[in-house]
Amino acid sequence: MDDPGDKYSLPTYGDSANLLSPVSDIPHVIHLLTQSAPSTQRATIEKYFTPSASFTHPFCRTGSFEGSRWLIWCIYRWYKIMSPRIEINVDGIAYDEKNLTLYINIHQVFRIWVIPYFNAPVSFVSVLKLVHYPPLPAQRSYSTSFNPNDPENDSLNKSTSTGKPLYFIQSQNDLYQVNEFFKFFSQFGILSGLLLLWQFVATALCIAGSTVFWPISWVEQNVIGGNKEKSIADAVRG
What we know:
The chain is of the alpha+beta class. It has ten helices and five strands. Strands 1-5-4-3-2 form a five-stranded mixed beta sheet. The termini are far apart.
């Protein structure tokens, strides 16, 4: 099997060297982070993440401070050491342009090479908060801590020569449903199966509760009016 780093490599500096179009560019960035050689992986983080970027995951978090990007590199490096061959696909992307936020639906098969036959096929949503350079008025606070033209960010200098606005990742937050998270701990889906059973039991309890306590809904509908102008206690007092 070929090294994924041969397939997913950094683009040549120029118009496509950084995030010019977040929706179309981000799938390639994800493959670079998860399926490339160590040197390419590190260069990708230094290119697309701000120096104070943060990373949040059910297993770990970095916080945000000057230099926190180095912690993100350590996390991704350990991720690849544990699972050198990652199968990952981007299923869908939603972009909130007003708030500069990407919502990315991802599924991957995570394998740990020291544990035979272990694999965790999981789906999750990765939420990426972006910053715009030059900074937009609402982001002026970033301009003092992050400047692609700073000598320390030399890998970014060449990409700003076109004068086009660029986007950089300020934070990454990976969100997992509980049943997906359990797949990392349980082979053959045992814990996920038990959780699925509990979820159906909880649904049955919701049905029972809504049936037994229907008078509360009647009061809310007919006395309170379904709004928060007064409480049930106020309604009882008249």
